[in-house]
């Protein structure tokens, strides 16, 4: 299992999913770029060959959004140098985590009530967990995040006595699942909520036919996922580049 190749596939699939969900996009040959308008390089981006990227980069720059730029094909030093000259920053030091899934992943059990968010009211409560934790604070961003959540991914909320204390998202692609994000409310951490949200997503993915999982870990997420059997792998350098707004 090549974890970092799986991670690249996940990034491409996520951007394709955003394009298919109807967000602003442009195409150049077999390549494409998509922009949601969010201040997030994971929710805006381009995928293409070196010959297609100039058009895609110009389109993204017109929208003044941060973005991920994924180059198809093997790394090429000349292409890398050209993209750096255009102001892009190559990803060379990050890590990814992944593991195989069993056919019957065990869902969590215990005191936390976890439910899937399937309507706009539930998605708003789900996304508000991130907002109240300070993940973003721009005016109107909650509405934009709910709009994306309604079009892409599966979302779960952990409750305690009716209050939302955790939220998480997953995205199924090919035979795999990307664990997109997870947040536990301040004051409720170190109680197993993040683990429970991760396990419910893995169980749901296995039931949907996924056989492998991948995640881009935070520092806290690294320890959580290691405890659930995930292995760590360095990124494949010079395959992903970052465009600042």
Automatic annotation (TrEMBL):
<dbReference type="InterPro" id="IPR000182">
    <property type="entry name" value="GNAT_dom"/>
</dbReference>
<dbReference type="InterPro" id="IPR016181">
    <property type="entry name" value="Acyl_CoA_acyltransferase"/>
</dbReference>
<dbReference type="Pfam" id="PF13508">
    <property type="entry name" value="Acetyltransf_7"/>
</dbReference>
<protein>
    <submittedName>
        <fullName>Acetyltransferase (GNAT) family protein</fullName>
    </submittedName>
</protein>
<keyword id="KW-0808">Transferase</keyword>
<feature type="domain" description="N-acetyltransferase">
    <location>
        <begin position="112"/>
        <end position="245"/>
    </location>
</feature>
<dbReference type="GO" id="GO:0016747">
    <property type="term" value="F:acyltransferase activity, transferring groups other than amino-acyl groups"/>
</dbReference>
């Amino acid at each position: 299992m090549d974890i970092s190749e799986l991670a690249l596939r996940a990034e491409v699939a996520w951007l394709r999913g955003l394009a298919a969900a109807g967000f602003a996009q442009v195409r150049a040959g077999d390549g494409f770029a998509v922009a949601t308008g969010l201040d997030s390089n994971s929710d805006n981006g381009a995928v293409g060959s070196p010959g297609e990227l100039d058009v895609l980069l110009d389109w993204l720059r017109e929208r003044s959004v941060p973005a991920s730029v994924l180059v198809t094909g093997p790394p090429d030093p000349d292409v890398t140098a050209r993209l750096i000259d255009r102001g892009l920053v190559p990803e060379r030091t990050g890590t990814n985590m992944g593991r195989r899934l069993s056919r019957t992943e065990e869902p969590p059990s215990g005191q936390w009530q976890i439910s899937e968010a399937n309507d706009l009211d539930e998605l708003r409560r789900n996304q508000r967990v991130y907002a109240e934790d300070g993940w973003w604070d721009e005016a109107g961003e909650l509405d934009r995040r709910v709009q994306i959540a309604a079009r892409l991914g599966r979302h779960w909320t952990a409750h305690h006595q009716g209050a939302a204390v955790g939220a998480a998202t997953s995205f199924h692609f090919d035979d795999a699942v990307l664990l997109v994000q997870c947040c536990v409310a301040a004051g409720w951490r170190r109680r197993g909520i993040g683990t429970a949200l991760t396990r419910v997503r893995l169980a749901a993915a296995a039931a949907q036919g996924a056989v492998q999982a991948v995640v881009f870990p935070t520092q806290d997420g690294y320890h959580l996922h290691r405890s659930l059997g995930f292995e760590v792998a360095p990124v494949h350098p010079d395959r992903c580049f970052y465009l600042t707004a």
